[in-house]
Design brief:
This protein has 507 residues and is an alpha/beta fold. It has helices at residues 24-37, 51-63, 77-86, 103-110, 114-131, 147-160, 176-189, 209-218, 240-249, 265-276, 297-305, 333-342, 349-363, 371-381, 425-437, 482-506, and strands at 2-3, 5-8, 41-45, 68-72, 92-100, 135-140, 164-169, 197-202, 223-226, 256-257, 293-294, 324-325, 388-398, 402-411, 414-422, 442-450, 459-466, 472-479. The protein has three domains: 2-276, Alpha-Beta Barrel (TIM Barrel), CATH 3.20.20; 298-381, no CATH class; 388-506, Double Stranded RNA Binding Domain (2-Layer Sandwich). 41% of the residues lie in helices and 21% in strands. Bound molecules: acetyl coenzyme *A and 3-methyl-2-oxobutanoic acid. Homodimer.
Length: 507
Amino acid sequence: MRKLYVFDTTLRDGEQSLGITLNVKEKLEISHQLVRLGVDIIEAGFPASSPGDMESVKTIAKEVKGVIICGLTRAAVQDIDLCAEALHNAEYPRIHTGIGVSPVHMEKKLKLTPDQVVEQAVAAVKYAKKYVSDVEFYAEDAFRSSPTFLARVIENVISAGATVVNIPDTVGYANPWEYGELINYVINNVKNIDRAIVSVHCHNDLGMATANSLAGIKAGASQLEGTINGIGERAGNTSLEEVIMSIYTRRDGYGVESKINTREISATSRLVSRITGVTVPDHKAIVGANAFNHASGIHQDGVLKDRKTYEIIQPETIGVPQNIISLTARSGRHALQHCLMELGYTIEGAQLDDVYQRFLQLADQKKEVFDQDLYVLMGDSGGIESSIVLQSMSIATNGVEMATATVILEIAGKTITDAACGNGPVNALFNTIDRITGNTAILEDYTLKSVTRSSEALGEATVKLRNNDGRLVVGKGFSTDIIEASAKAYINALDKRNLHTELVTES
Ligand SMILES: CC(=O)SCCNC(=O)CCNC(=O)[C@H](O)C(C)(C)COP(=O)(O)OP(=O)(O)OC[C@H]1O[C@@H](n2cnc3c(N)ncnc32)[C@H](O)[C@@H]1OP(=O)(O)O
Ligand SMILES: CC(C)C(=O)C(=O)O
């Protein structure tokens, strides 16, 4: 197996993302985690860019050991001098210097001829070599350069002492097969290429950074550059975790191995997200919140029978404790039974069918049904048979002062409709129910709370009614609609009151 060196540029190219500026302490914290992750090279910053970045690179060079610490420069002596100064205390220092090699970069940006670019590239590498033995050269915008000119530049910088040659797709323009061909071309057409490590550095403008990096590695590149969570300028850089896990999952396909400890991937991703403030999208490959979450019945049933049906990576491999079965309106009985079993309920057959039907009613109103919802669902099913059924209700409000409720109840098989006003929706609702049921008990207390998380949480309403004989009955109702929960709680209290009356009458 060929060794694949992993070059992390979260702190340099990742930090070029709009909205991210990391201070010394933050960069240091990420660096220590990158060491735990097992990267080979940390590109700590661009020392010439600001005093703050100079300080960061200096501190990382001094405090982070056992890994190559790299700083970026232009092909310019002033940048290289500052970078060398910043890396002074590094155990393994690397200067990463380079220059644009595509026609548009040379003509429009640098205003240099191709010959001048070669000359400046060689001069920069030689100058950096005075400070450190490990010099990486980047041929900026290599993909849009002509392969023959690129080969000429690379050949010259290797002769000047470059130990690593970086072939970036700076603007994310390549297709995977083309990028693979370019790496193959460099490897087969540059004299003395075996004196240097060939590196891939891709951007995600067309969403192909991972594919392009993999194509470059397959074609023979031995260094992978990228960032955690794929952060970076514009659409970002190659997500290191995606390439690492592609190689891990399809080991036979690439013929390389890295020293990355995949179990640190999740922790690293979370740390970078927390510190940079850049949220990882839920559907992001490998590190997204949904990456190991099964949400539909057929998948859940498959995974419960054998994880391999729908899982190509075990979550433990990247440091996520376990996969997740999320209950939704698309879940089936197997998933519901499994989640209830995890909570200690063993149900099957008709009882499972019954709970499942009620579960679906709830799930249709919510994006996700949580454990707390299940407790409520199970608690509800053990309750008393209701003699009063809420068939429908509607509330009309007029400002904050006035509301009218129209309620349809079924009592002992008879449907009764009525309406009443109140000083708010709940008051109007309770007044209407009183009119229909002839209730005379006094409402002593009414509370409402959320019993599950998320914005569409289940509301729990509690109603306390004081009977004429002084007895107190407590009713509870649950619903994602708090007015409905209130009606259910009121009816539940009336039901209990009636039941008690019957018991008393019987005795
Ligand atoms: C593809 C990449 O990610 S490259 C890295 C991008 N990172 C950064 O830009 C880091 C942050 N940058 C900075 O702090 C500043 O831009 C600095 C300190 C580097 C330079 O600032 P300034 O001196 O004010 O120059 P400015 O950024 O406006 O322009 C860049 C200059 O460098 C030149 N230049 C650009 N790249 C290179 C290079 N690789 N080698 C030599 N010269 C270069 C440009 O042609 C331009 O030169 P000019 O002034 O003669 O026209
Ligand atoms: C500076 C180089 C390596 C770069 O970031 C790019 O070309 O994208």
